[in-house]
Amino acid sequence: MISSLSCDIMKNVKYCKCVRCGKEYAAVPDITTCECGGILDVIYDYEYIKTKLNRDVLAKRDEPTMWRYRELLPIEEDTAPAGLRVGMSPMYEAPNIAADLGIARLYIKDDGINPTSSLKDRASAMAVTKAIEAGIACSSTGNAASSLAGNAAKAGLKTYIFVPARAPKGKIAQLMMFGANLTAVDGSYEETFELSKAAIDKYGWYNRNAAINPYLSEGKKTVAHEICEQLGFEAPDFVAVSVGDGCTVAGVYKGLYDMYMVGLINKIPRIISVQAEGCCPINTAVMTGEEWQPQEENTYADSIAVGVPRNPDKAINAIKDSNGICVNVSDDEIREAQKYLAKNAGVFGEPAGVTATAGLMKLSREGKLDKGATIVSIVTGNGLKDIDSAIKSAGEPVHCKNDLAQFERLFFS
Amino acid sequence: MISSLSCDIMKNVKYCKCVRCGKEYAAVPDITTCECGGILDVIYDYEYIKTKLNRDVLAKRDEPTMWRYRELLPIEEDTAPAGLRVGMSPMYEAPNIAADLGIARLYIKDDGINPTSSLKDRASAMAVTKAIEAGIACSSTGNAASSLAGNAAKAGLKTYIFVPARAPKGKIAQLMMFGANLTAVDGSYEETFELSKAAIDKYGWYNRNAAINPYLSEGKKTVAHEICEQLGFEAPDFVAVSVGDGCTVAGVYKGLYDMYMVGLINKIPRIISVQAEGCCPINTAVMTGEEWQPQEENTYADSIAVGVPRNPDKAINAIKDSNGICVNVSDDEIREAQKYLAKNAGVFGEPAGVTATAGLMKLSREGKLDKGATIVSIVTGNGLKDIDSAIKSAGEPVHCKNDLAQFERLFFS
After folding, report:
1. Residue A22: Cβ-neighbour burial (10 angstroms; 0-12, 13-18, 19+)
2. Contact A153 B343 (CB under 8 A)
3. To the nearest whole angstrom, how far is the Cα of B291 from the nearest Cα of chain A?
4. Residue-wise over A203-224: b if at least 16 C-beta within 10 A, else e?
5. In this complex, do A195 and B385 lie within 8 Å of one another by their Cβ atoms?
6. Residue of chain B whose Cα is closest to the Cα of A151
7. What DSSP element (H or E) covers A40?
8. For residue B138, which of B185, B207, B187, B85 has the smallest C-alpha distance?
């Protein structure tokens, strides 16, 4: 059965497989979910990939982007990657924060340094690349939207975008500027998703929802490839990631799994899954061992305010398979982490972007972090995306006239 | 005289020289302006640098940051560069825009992809590196402030920052988050500068104002080094840059001059200096041939709203020495360029960030661009820094309920 499915043009990909029922599908560009409703995973031929990809090949490769790991991506050999420069974001060691947390080493992977200022660019670049293969327009829901709009603008693709009306102004500004056909949906993320799906079904647009389109987690996983390479292929003990829809954590795990399967790292790090207390259906499912249940979206961290996650299966598997840890944090803890990380690491993340670090701070306070641990915390988006929240957290500046005496009274008395 | 000035620890630097009276000074870390009030330029030993830096060396160098051009920078050989990953921003070819403008090739250098989302990070990284050499706290005025705050936070340096109270909220949010000691000055950029200088004089902080501190343009110039390397050392015909204080255009010219002097390019591109009509003292001086005169600050492009430029000499020399072109654009033309560039190149710049491109669009409309020209347009900052302006320009999204019929009426009827 597999041989009839295998994709002649993607030698590195075997097929897509439903994570729920196990049914296999040929990896065509516009595939979405399984007929059982389950989401698909892309299955690679790691033995083949091992013959093409190793440390020496990577060391000689002059490609400082996510496409550096092309052998591990579901694209055709002659497909030109979408145009914006996505990936190979900086990773900083933060010894001062590691000391505060009581661990051996902490690295901050700043994925806010991407063309549209979030990790979502990795999935959008993949979506645009696959949409060009399929030759159709693109649609997206939610917070990945501004990223799709930018990457599609560069590629000259038309986009239809749906966001919950609550989306922060920075993302709206990006969307309007990138010339997306933008609809602000008066309703929850769930309702936004439904309207998007109805329109996609009717008009046949390419679906950039990372939970429905199995290729998009494959874009996101490149952040984990980079982490491994940036650590000299020494796997960290833990990778902390903020979790909303579940696609990012699933992608991170998949990237680590890839690197392990092709022999580039010798263990798979444990995932630390961090959600907001006010919206934590995935962590709740892992912690209770029960089926996930919809929750309210009670957090100001808009990118992870997902009460009905669309990728629960892959996310829950990722956390469990890595022997992961779940931790939920309050909005106040997220605000505290945002200021702490900016002040101590020079990295200004959006609320959802710093939620992973908030989780580490909480685990540290509770004495649950191993002293010898090496941890990577992923910052998934830039703080400039949500300025109003940032100013609310950090406060307003002191005002002063051009008067040194007044200045001195304000600061030094 | 030169030998007694030459810096034993910086073999590549001869001395600093006043651009007005020609007086020479030893290149110590905390040098500022000449006793005549003129600003200093760092003079290199290009013959020495030629023996250390060439295409082969660069091709083998695994350093995708501004410190890649270390031989051309005024830092000691054993100085570790400041911590955030600054530079090697992407440069995109934009054939669709080149066709619109009627030129052969256009490249967009997106310097909004830097740790704090602007080109200013290049100067701030230099400032922090030199401040660490000098071992003191750092101060800054104006729009470079958020950049200094981020770079200093990473390095653990304390900062005192002064911004005009009109600074857009994105920059304020960054400053507060990075934990700067921030003063919003109720007054113009000029008054802000004066208060900053008074406080620096009193407290002996390291001065990060790029017009007073001669090293900072040396950081900014790395954008030009990268442009040359990214074009395979084929110099473009023109480099378009938005101009406010004058430090960026001076830095761009210096970087091109460096590359020419060490033999890495065979001509110096002509500078296209673009200012806002409502605040264009430098262009006015070049166009009239007279001394520059202070002007009002009548533009919404806050980063270049500088009525009293602090680096007029170097800026005016840069434009003249490159046989440059001056063009002034209205705020409406800047707004148009912002939307055009985002929609057609996938690059969302702040108003001052897209002003160079606005200048190209105007020159094109006036039939003043050469059909065979290759032009690089520098985008100096990310649009997320000034979201309110962006939304004002681009408009608000269409609102819709979760109702496909309503959606269709809105978009397809």
Report:
1. exposed
2. yes
3. 27
4. eebbbbbbbbbbbbbbbbbbbb
5. no
6. B346
7. strand A40-44
8. B207
Best probe of the A interface among B387, B399, B410, B412, by most A CBs < 10 A, is B387
Q: What distance in Å separates the CA atoms of residue A394 and residue A388, rounded to the nearest whole number?
A: 10
Q: Which residue of B has its CA nearest to A64?
A: B64
Q: Which of A152, A384, A396 sits opposite B384 (nearest CB)?
A: A384
Give the 3-state secondary structure of chain B.
Answer: CHHHHCCCCCCCEEEEEECCCCCEECCCCCCCCCCCCCCEEEEECHHHHHCCCCHHHHHHCCCCCHHHHHHHCCCCCCCCCCCCCCCCCCEEECHHHHHHHCCCEEEEEECCCCCCCECHHHHHHHHHHHHHHHCCCEEEEHHHHHHHHHHHHHHCCCEEEEEECCCCHHHHHHHHHCCCEEEEECCCHHHHHHHHHHHHHHHCCEECCCCCCCHHHHHHCHHHHHHHHHCCCCCCCEEEEECCCCHHHHHHHHHHHHHHHCCCCCCCCEEEEEEECCECHHHHHHHHCCCCCCCCCCCCCHHHCCCCCCCHHHHHHHHHHCCCEEEEECHHHHHHHHHHHHHHHCCCECHHHHHHHHHHHHHHHCCCCCCCCEEEEEECEEHHHHHHHHHHHHCCCEEECCCHHHHHHHHHC
Contact B399 A113 (CB under 8 A): no
- Is B181 in Cβ contact with A384 (below 8 Å)? no
ipTM rounded to 2 decimals = 0.91
Q: Where are the beta strands (DSSP E) in A81-180?
A: 91-93, 105-110, 138-141, 159-164
B177 vs A96, A383, A385: nearest CB: A383
Give the minimum alpha-carbon distance from A2 to chain B in angstroms, rounded to a whole number: 39
**Contact list, A150 vs chain B (CB under 8 Å):** 342, 346, 348
Q: How far is A94 from chain B (nearest CA, A)?
A: 9
Q: Which residue in chain B is spatially nearest to A411 when comparing CA positions?
A: B181
How far apart CA B163 and CA A147 sit, in angstroms, is: 31
Please list the pLDDT of chain A residue by residue as tens digits (413 residues): 343 454 556 889 999 999 999 999 999 888 889 999 999 999 999 999 999 999 999 999 989 999 999 999 998 878 887 789 999 999 999 999 999 999 999 999 999 999 999 999 999 999 998 888 776 666 666 668 899 999 999 999 889 999 988 888 888 999 999 999 999 999 888 888 889 889 988 888 888 887 788 999 999 999 999 999 999 999 999 999 999 989 999 999 999 999 999 999 999 999 999 999 999 999 999 999 999 999 998 999 988 998 988 889 999 999 999 999 999 999 999 999 999 999 999 999 999 999 999 999 999 999 999 999 999 999 999 999 888 889 998 888 999 999 999 999 988 87
CA distance B391 to chain A (A): 5
